[in-house]
Amino acid sequence: MTDYFQEMGWRELEDGEQPNHLLHMARFLIDFGMYDDNFTGEWPRLPPPASKESVKNLKEVKIEDENQNCPICLKKFNINDTAKVMPCQHLFHEKCILTWLNQTNSCPFCRHELPTDDEAYEAFKKEKKRSEQRKEDIEALHNSMFS
Amino acid sequence: MANIAAKRIKREFKEVMKSEEVAGGAIKLELINDSWTELQGEIAGPSDTPYEGGTFILEIKVPETYPFNPPKIRFVTKIWHPNVSSVTGAICLDILKDQWAAALTLRTVLLSLQALLSAAEPNDPQDAVVAKQYKENPQLFHMTARHWTNVYAGGPASIVEFNQKVQRLLDMGVDEHDARVALSTYDWELERATEQLFS
Ligand SMILES: [Zn+2]
Ligand SMILES: [Zn+2]
């Protein structure tokens, strides 16, 4: 029994010591995955298109380096071509990236996400972020009481 | 076929042929028709897996909307793996479905499939029977996968006991692949496999 307690980082209470209910609660929440409200964290299909606004606001640059490919069509850019720049700094032909963003909202190269016009998806993203934050909070709480 | 799809496949094809993976024999890519819509891929079974020493052939179909939609890929070589159907060769891999990204290429897809052979994802199975064995009886799963690699993919490890059991069913007039599937499914218990085949 002692070994089990040690393994779990637990110890028996000293004479007259009260159990730390908060600590137990935090452990319980973490061990049983209760902190995430059964939030599954997966969007079950291809995320929706990028918002019209975010597509309209994509910057353009003039290509200066001729050894760069557009990651969608794999064609080399020509010097002085204009390319669209994603916020992650990845460059694409306008036609290539607009076709892709019209289908789903992330960079085809690094999956950096643009906002969408889809309310359900935006709510999902918010919930996911909240659940991640909650998990961090509980871990921080646990660690602060534990150390 | 839309222009961009064929052009991109041509560029990819060149890239793959120059890659070190092709040079090292880890992957292969061949053209099946002149319109660049069908290709055949090949991956070597990764070392330290039951697929080691085997060569696995893949059917690759390129949709007109490529690269905005993923290529359709299935195993032609029969394989015992939780994420591949032991019957149809259909593959369950996220990047071939809702995690596809237009910058992925046939080269990266073939390498991902090779990685899938090293690290199965039994919680997202294509073949529930295989996935169950993988989780509940990993040793038997390993042997079964090695046996399939030997029989279908040219792998080195012949497993005498399994071959004998398959032969027993062949002697009863059962089709060879049916016999192997039934035995693999019923953890190589001859009685249960026979019962299922003749019920
Ligand atoms: Zn392009
Ligand atoms: Zn990016």
UniProtKB/TrEMBL annotation, chain A:
Keywords: Metal-binding, Transferase, Ubl conjugation pathway, Zinc, Zinc-finger. GO terms for molecular function: ubiquitin protein ligase activity; zinc ion binding. The keyword Chaperone does not apply. Residues 125-140 have a biased composition (Basic and acidic residues). The keyword NAD does not apply. SUPFAM superfamilies: RING/U-box. Coiled coil: none annotated. One of its GO terms (cellular component) is cytoplasm. Gene3D superfamilies: Zinc/RING finger domain, C3HC4 (zinc finger) (3.30.40.10). Its EC number is 2.3.2.27. Pathway: Protein modification; protein ubiquitination. Transmembrane segments: none annotated. It holds the Pfam family zf-RING_2. It catalyses: S-ubiquitinyl-[E2 ubiquitin-conjugating enzyme]-L-cysteine + [acceptor protein]-L-lysine = [E2 ubiquitin-conjugating enzyme]-L-cysteine + N(6)-ubiquitinyl-[acceptor protein]-L-lysine. PROSITE patterns: ZF_RING_2. GO terms for biological process: protein ubiquitination. Signal peptide: none annotated. Residues 70-111 form the RING-type domain. E3 ubiquitin-protein ligase which accepts ubiquitin from an E2 ubiquitin-conjugating enzyme in the form of a thioester and then directly transfers the ubiquitin to targeted substrates. Catalyzes monoubiquitination of 26S proteasome subunit PSMC2/RPT1. PANTHER family: E3 UBIQUITIN-PROTEIN LIGASE PRAJA, E3 UBIQUITIN-PROTEIN LIGASE RNF181. Belongs to the RNF181 family. This is E3 ubiquitin-protein ligase RNF181. It comes from Danaus chrysippus (African queen).
Automatic annotation (TrEMBL), chain B:
Pfam families: UQ_con. Residues 4-154 form the UBC core domain. Residues 161-199 form the UBA domain. Its EC number is 2.3.2.23. SUPFAM superfamilies: UBA-like, UBC-like. Coiled coil: none annotated. It is an enzyme of class 2 (transferase). Keywords: ATP-binding, Nucleotide-binding, Transferase, Ubl conjugation pathway. InterPro entries: UBA (IPR015940), UBA-like_sf (IPR009060), UBC (IPR000608), UBCD4_UBA (IPR042614), UBQ-conjugating_AS (IPR023313), UBQ-conjugating_enzyme/RWD (IPR016135). One of its GO terms (molecular function) is ATP binding. The active site is at residue 92. Gene3D superfamilies: DNA helicase RuvA subunit, C-terminal domain, Ubiquitin Conjugating Enzyme. Belongs to the ubiquitin-conjugating enzyme family. This is E2 ubiquitin-conjugating enzyme. It comes from Danaus chrysippus (African queen).
